[in-house]
Amino acid sequence: MYNEILDRKILLIDDEIELLKLVETVLKKEGFRRIVKASNGTEGVKLCKIEKPDIVVLDVMMPGMDGFETCKKIREFSFIPILFLSAKSDDIDKIVALGMGADDYVTKPFSPKEVAYRIKAHLRRNIYIKNEIYNKEEKIVKFGEVTINFTKGEVIKKGQHITFTPKEYSLLSYMCKNSNRILSKQMLCDEVWGDDFNGYDNTIMVHIRRLREKIEEDPSNPKHILTVKGLGYKLNTELS
Question: I want to staple 43 with a disulfide (CB 3.0 to 4.6 A). Which of 23, 38, 80, 140 is the partner?
Answer without folding.
Answer: 38
